[in-house]
Amino acid sequence: MAAWNAGTLSDSRSQTREREEKPNAFGPTQPQGISWKAVVFAVALIPPNIYWIAVAEMVWTGLHFTAVSLPLNVIFILFWLIGYNAVARRISPRLAFSQQDLLVIYIILATSSAVAGYDSLVGLIGVMPHITWYATPENDWGNLFAGHLPPWLIITNREAVHDFYVGEVDFYGASYWKYWLIPAISWTFLVLVITILLLCITVVLRRPWTEQEKLTYPIIQLPLSMSNPKTRLFHSRLFWIGFAVAAIVDIINGLNYLYPSVPYIPVRGIRLDHYFTEKPWNAIGWTPIRFRFFMIGMTYLLPLDLSISCWFFYILRKIERITGAVTGWSNIPGYPFLGQQSMGAVLGICIIGLVSINRHLRAVIKKVCLGTGIDDSREPLRYRGAVFGIVICSVLLGVFAQQMGLSLWVVVAFFLLFLMMCIAMARIRAESGVPEHIMHVVSPQDSLVSLLGTRSFGPRNLSGLSLFVWFSYRKRNYLMPHQLEGFKIAEQTGFSSRPVFWFLILATGVGLLSAFIIFPQALYRYGAEARAGGMRAVGWDAFNRLSDWLQHPRSPDWIGNSFLLFGLLLTFLLTFLRRTLLWWPFHPAGYALATSRCVDDYWFTIVFASTLKWIILRSGGARGYRRSLPFFLGLIVGDYIFACGWSLLGIILDRPMYTVWV
Fold it and tell me: Which of 253, 396, 498, 603 is the most exposed place for a label (fewest CB within 10 A)?
C-alpha cells in the first residue's frame, strides 16, 4: 500500500475537510508522444462501441453507459487494454500501448460515446420520425405544428416511419436510408458546429481553471491511475477487495435476473415514501434508498463540502414539499419551482466561473486584437483561432436556426442559455467530479417560456425550439466536460494538447457517422414501438410540451421568474460565504444539483460515502484517505466490468439482462 500515491480531492478551508494535494503519481511513465496506432485503434473501436450503445441504451433501454460522468463502456475497454498491455510487454514491449496511447483511446471513446449516447443522438433518433407516426386526429398535431417543422430535419415518409416502429425490416435493403439521408446530414452539421464552438470556448477557459485555480478534475483520477504503472493500482490488495465486493453482488444479482430461484441481494434498496402515507408527510414524493457500488466509489471522490451540500439541499427540498402541503402552497401551479431555482443556480455558477477569470478574458481579448500579452503557444489552439472559431460557429448556428424558421433573437436567447448551462456543467465537473449531472427540470426552452410566455414566440419559434429538446433537456452526457478533461489529461501526462483538439473533433465526426449508420438499422430490425421506450420518451417530451404550449398559451410566470432570481442570488450568496468564511460547509453546486433532481437517485449513496470519508479523514487524515482510496476505485471498476459483462452477454443472447444503472 505504500506504493499507492494517488492524489486526493482537496479542500483546506477547515480542519474537518480534507487537505488538497496535487496528484504526483499521474504524470507520464516516461516522456513520449502519441502513436498513430493508438489513434487508428481508437477510431476503429468507435463503430462497435456505437453498436453496443445502440443495443444496450436504445433498443433495450438497459445499461446507460453514457449517463454517468465516467462512461462505463470506456472504462471496461480501458481495463481490458491494460490487461492486453501486461501480456504484450512480456512478448514485445513494442506491441504494448504507452500510457499516453491508452489515455488518447480513452479520450476518443469517451467523446464519441457522449455524442451518440442516451441523452444525445439516441434522443434525436426518437424525435425525427415521432410526429409522422404519432400525429392523430385526436391530438391534432397535424394542424397545430406539423407545418412548422422543417421537412429536412424529420422523417416524413409514412412507409419508412411505419417500418421503423414495427420492425423486422432491413433498413438498407428496403432503401429507407434515402429518407434519412438529408435529416442526418443536417443534424450532423449542427452537432459538429456545436462541438467546435464548445471546443473553442473550452480552449479559452482551460488555462485559468486548470493552471491558476487548479481545479482538481476528480473524474479523470481513475483512468489516470489505471493507465499509469507508477500508481501500482492493480497491485493493491484493497483495490481487489473492492473489485470483488462489487463483482460478487453483480454476479449473484445477474444470475437472479436469469434464474429467480437464486437469492437477490437488495442493492436497489427501498422507497421511503412508501412508509409515509399520511398527509402532509406523503408530500415528500419519490425517495429511494439505493446502494450502487460504483456510485459509492465515485461519491467518495467528491469533496466533503459538495457531498454535504447535495444531501442537505435534497433534504431541504423535501421539507419544502411538506411545508407546501401544510400551508397550501403546493396548490400554486409549479410549486416549489425547482426548474426556475435550478436554472438560476446554473446561471449563477456560470457567471461566477467567468467573472472569476475576468483578467484572463481581458488578456485573451488583448491577444486577439493586438497580438501582444498572454503567451498562447502551449494552448490547444491559439486564442485568435479559438475566438475566430467562436464567431464563425455562432454565425453558422444562427444561419441554421433561421433556416428552421426561428427568429434571430430567439436563436441568440436559446443558445446563450444552452452555452451557459454547458459552461456551468463543465465547471461543476472539473471542480467536484459529481458522478451524474442530469438537469431533470432545467431546459432553455422552459426557462424562456417562463420568462416571456408563449405569446412572445409564436408557433414557428416554439416548434423549432422543440426540435432542440434532445440536446438541451434532461442531459447528462455534456460534451464540454469531456473536452476539458481531455485537455487536462494531456497536461497531466506530458503530451501536447494540440492534437487532442483535433482528436476530439475526429471522435465527434466518426461517432456521428457511426451512429447514423448503426442506429436506424438496429431500430428497423427490432422495431421502435416494441422496444426503445426511453428513446420514444424524448419525442413525447418534445411534442407533448409543444402541444400544451400551443393549445394553452401562457403569460410570463412572474412567480416562477422570482424563484429563478432567488436561485441566482442564493448561488451568489453561497459563493460569497464559501470564499469568506473558512468554516462555511455549503457549496453552490450542491444547491444546483439537488434542486434539479439530479441527486434523487443517489442521495443516500452520497450520505453513506461522505460519512465513511469523514470518519476516515477524522481518524487517519489525508494519509488514511489515500490508503483507503484503492478500495473505492475497486468498487467502481468491479461494478463497471461486470455490469458491462452482463450487457455484452445480453447482446450475444439478444435479450435484456441485469443492469446496475438505468
Answer: 498
